[in-house]
Amino acid sequence: MRHHRKKRKTVLPGCRQCYWLWKRAVKKWKWEGLKVHMNNVMTAMIRKILDKAGAGERLTFDDGVALFDCKDLNALGRAADAVTRRLHPEPFRTYNIDRNINYTNVCAAVCDFCAFFRKSGDAEAYVLSREELYQKIEETIALGGDQALMQGGNHPSLKLEWYEELLRDLKSRYPTFNLHAFSAPEIWNFVKINKLPLREVLERLRAAGMGSLPGGGGEILVDRVRKAITVNKCLTDEWLDVHRVWHQLGGRSTCTMMFGHVETLAERIEHLDRLRQLQDETHGFTAFICWTLQPPGSAIRGNGTDMSQIPPAGSFEYLRTQAIARLYLDNIPNIQSSWVTQGLKVGQLALMFGANDMGSLMIEENVVASAGTVHYLTLEQIKNAIRELGYVPRQRNVFYEYVDEPLAV
Fold first, then answer.
1. Cα–Cα dist 93/72, whole Å
2. Contact 126/349 with Cβ under 8 angstroms?
3. In what helix (H) or strand (E) does residue 62 lie, and over which residues does it extend?
């Protein structure tokens, strides 16, 4: 028969209460020591990733996800700024003068975050007249603007011919004025309504006068997220295909990300990765712009996600996500600040967190404003924000070509 020796307990002198307090203290000391060790390991790993990006090496998907564990916002900002300075050693930081013209608010899609859209029969539904469009463009030109960001909803009945006629009319009146027109979801809606191939739709729009393609409607390029927050709107591959074909036709476009809602941090990186892959293929993106969800004032039930109850992501989240985007998107040359959603001071800080462009004067903006976020800057405020950081402000067009006289700046 085997005899088991009883394990002797270590008995400390003193009362039982003191003994258990001692045990808890030892356990906490070990846990705190483990946390310190793990933090040191994480810090070393993140430093290695930041150094890798600074050296111009491509970050992996896992690198991108790991950067969201970095609690040192300044370290992320310094790394992103170093990459920006390497890509843009010139003493300039840019801005644009344009206007966001929403030619219609009628939309067959339902986005849980959009307080702007209306259905066809709603009393507030509209399609702007030509005279209203002429007036808006002429006001923009008078203020020194050179383009309009012209977007609407996924209108359920306007045919492709209507859009072609609109473009031809505007280009004949304002031949040097760029029409940065129709987001990928709108283009995909044209494809569905007209039952035409995507390439043919884009060829016809380009021939009619469409100058460049905006990056709107990207939100998060992960189908799980898109299905959770939108109905009757293009999915990830469709959004990317619109930009792919536009690039193949020789066109240029921007790309965007709206974050801070139902997506995971890994899905933010998946979004950036899909953009980076397409840019490797086509080299057609001129710039990336990201912003945080601006929660609507009340629930907009498309798929049942009440985004009015999602707490707004703050400036920390915005700045770190933009900085990580600059480190990850090594093949997209420009990153634009989103002062329209963040305000002047955070928008200015964004120029130290990976952005090289202050964005647009934005003479008119309706979609973000409809959610209750209203920031307006004068041209002088935009220029001063750039000057205060030690740069010279330069006006550019959508292709990031300077359009001002350098000696007059």
1. 26
2. no
3. helix 61-67
